[in-house]
């Protein structure tokens, strides 16, 4: 009985952030996902200092083309003699950068519009939400294709396209969350002491809406990576010879019959990255849900 009381006291003394972290790491899927993400980030940061981009990543070596996995080339070589393992490692930089930057764009714009719509309501909310509905009616990939076609195919425009296509999700979830907290006592108290509306939204409302937004961020990063890879596969993403995973899949599709490893390894990289972010997102949703506290 005494041990239970002590454990209960330690649990109450634990900060909210530590409590969330404690529940998160109890989820084996989340731990696996965090490990994969940490490994990907480490690779993305260090690969530029380990590999020479011009000679080891994009240089064509026709005499070594289409070599199957071996001790010299762990994942084999592509149709231009480039080492797939080196290109896969370097491609981590592009895929993570596109995923993170595009979601940052969507988060900034979508959260701002959603908070305004939820806080003010009325005509402002109607205009924002009906515009959002129009964008939401168009599939993300199709929307991104239209934007890339209009702006041109390069890495920056790819980030913008994927980010804009993800804005409606953030607008909806932010507005829905703001609606639940805008009439709480602490918001009324902030109004009573003369806080301006910008400060109320930024300092009082949005901090209490973070839980679903954080979960949405992790899940949208996975979707953004898939969308970016799809655009690169179609030739509308990161321009060659950059080793983006989607473009590597596109390069290898002509050799599926005899050299399937060219597409196998980039496909596995995309799958594992998306799976890792989804595992973390699902675990965060459970960890941030107060109803699941034990």
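^ Assign residues to that structure.
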């Amino acid at each position: 009985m005494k041990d239970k009381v002590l454990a209960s006291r330690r649990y109450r003394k634990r900060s909210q952030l530590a409590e969330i972290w404690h529940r998160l790491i109890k989820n084996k899927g989340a731990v696996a996902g965090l490990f994969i993400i940490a490994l990907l980030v480490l690779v993305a940061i260090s690969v530029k200092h380990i590999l020479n981009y011009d000679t080891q990543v994009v240089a064509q070596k026709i005499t070594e083309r289409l070599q199957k996995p071996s001790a010299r080339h762990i994942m084999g070589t592509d149709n231009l003699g480039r080492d797939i393992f080196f290109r896969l490692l370097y491609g981590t930089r592009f895929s993570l950068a596109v995923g993170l930057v595009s979601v940052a764009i969507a988060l900034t714009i979508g959260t701002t519009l959603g908070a305004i719509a939820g806080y003010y309501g009325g005509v402002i909310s109607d205009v924002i939400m009906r515009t959002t509905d129009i964008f939401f009616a168009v599939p993300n990939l199709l929307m991104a294709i239209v934007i890339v076609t209009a702006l041109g195919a390069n890495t920056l425009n790819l980030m913008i396209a994927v980010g804009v296509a993800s804005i409606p999700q953030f607008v909806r979830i932010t507005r829905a969350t703001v609606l639940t907290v805008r009439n709480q006592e602490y918001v009324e108290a902030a109004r009573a002491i003369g806080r301006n509306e910008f400060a109320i939204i930024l300092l009082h409302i949005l901090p209490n809406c973070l839980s679903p937004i954080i979960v949405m961020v992790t899940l949208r990063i996975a979707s953004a990576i898939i969308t970016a890879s799809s655009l690169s596969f179609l030739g509308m993403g990161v321009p060659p010879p950059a080793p983006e995973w989607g473009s590597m899949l596109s390069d290898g599709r002509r050799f599926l019959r005899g050299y399937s490893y060219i597409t196998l390894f980039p496909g596995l990289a995309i799958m594992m990255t998306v799976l890792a972010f989804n595992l973390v997102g699902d675990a965060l949703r459970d960890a941030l849900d107060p109803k699941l506290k034990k």
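The chain has 13 helices and no strands.
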